[in-house]
Amino acid sequence: MAAVSDADNLASIKLFNDPAEAAPQPPGKRPLAVIGAGFSGTIAVLHLLRQLPIDQPVLLCERAPEFARGVAYATGDNDHLLNVRATNMSALADEPSHFADWLRRRAEQTSQGLHPTEAGLFASRGLYGQYLRTLLDTALRETAGHAQLRLMPDDVTDVTPISGAGFTLTFAGGAKIDVAGIVLAVGNLSPEETPDPRICANPWGEKASKKLAGDLPVLIVGTGLTMVDLVISIRRRGFTGKIIAMSRGGLLPSRHASVDPWPMPRLTPAELKSMHLLMNRIRREVGAAAQHGVDWRAVIDSLRPFTAQLWGGMPLAERRRFLRHVRRYWDVHRHRMAPPHADLIAQMQREGSLQIMAGRVLGYDTNGGLVNVRYRLRGAGNEQVLPVQRVIVANGLEAIERTRDPLMGRLIASGLARFDKHNMGLDVTEALHVVRADGTPAERIWALGPIVRGVFWECVAVPDIRVQASHMAASVVAGLRADAPKWNFII
Fold this sequence. Notes:
With 491 residues, this protein is α/β, with parallel strands linked by helices. Mean pLDDT is 87; it is low at 1-14, 16-27 and 483-491. It has a seven-stranded mixed beta sheet with strand order 10-16-11-12-13-14-15. The two termini are 37 Å apart. It has three domains: 30-189 and 400-479, FAD/NAD(P)-binding domain; 199-254 and 337-393, FAD/NAD(P)-binding domain (3-Layer(bba) Sandwich); 275-334, no CATH class. The protein is built from 13 helices and 18 strands. Helices cover 31% and strands 19% of the residues.
């Protein structure tokens, strides 16, 4: 079957009003800069272009080789699956079937990257990356008449306020551009890689599965969805040795299943303020659902529409209690494996080629070509040693306080931004304005996506980020003044 090109799909997608319907205006304002062109940045641009006037330029900045891909969707492996059903993966909040419709048009000619299951249709991450790139190309084409959207393939390393409203962006390549405002959409910050070839701190890099010997084990620190992707990727690349995955709880993500809906529970004021009471209520809801033949997944899904509000309304001490004691259990129930992945992981466990362990890594000692991993199993008092050829750290999102990202470092050092109360990301207001070190909102700096998860918690998946993007665009439209100074940069 002939492959379907993005150009073939462009003709059937309409994102914006026809530019010819409005008289094109030459760029007369400083651009609004969106920093990061993975999912968060691409979706932010789409929503901004829908709400901003056509004479407000938008500059999309990306340091990676490709726009509209990001770490999550740059893979070309059709076995790297989205962990959300295709029906819930539309990039546009007001068009929930947009991605599913795009897939249907594509499936008429090829089914590559599509995985129908009893729990719904799951698409590959690479296929979703193609979808995002198609949307970005469509935006470029449909706004070309008035040159509203421009791409800047370079890394932003510094942000400096300028007199009046606006900022100067400094790029790694030496360019400096004045902008009217900034949207931080940097996604998941990659951890700094170690120089040791045997210890891999970035699970998404090539180093993770490069030059593995087939007769020596590999240790993955973490047992979540990143581990699942890694295990499948390593196996697909021909590694036949044993893989050991370790986390403190030794818990695997649950499997997606087809479920009937369950109504959103009406929580009491006391349950909204106490993590203990809230968890007890959720357990009772699960029991009530089971009595009606409804799976527990439906109860968890019923909480999704107001998880951010629930998180934000909890006292700080209760949120910290959640992170210490509940988070690992929430994650394995909330963030689930696509059925094909769940089948593969179960098969490898049965065969003994994948071992899941509950324990804590205490340290590493290198010995020639091996890494001696010092660890302690959960409930055990004695320290043990596990010799492996490689350690791959895949135990969750990098805490922002440990990042070496130059831009984040500069924003914090200059006082233009501060960490959230959990040091998970940047502090922001409800309108997604970044909060300065002095506690005041930075009027023209916004942020969305995983970088604000400490404030909103559920903002790392597509369904959550697209809602944030819509709210952010409305906040930007309200925050930009009509008298922004001129700019002359065109790419």
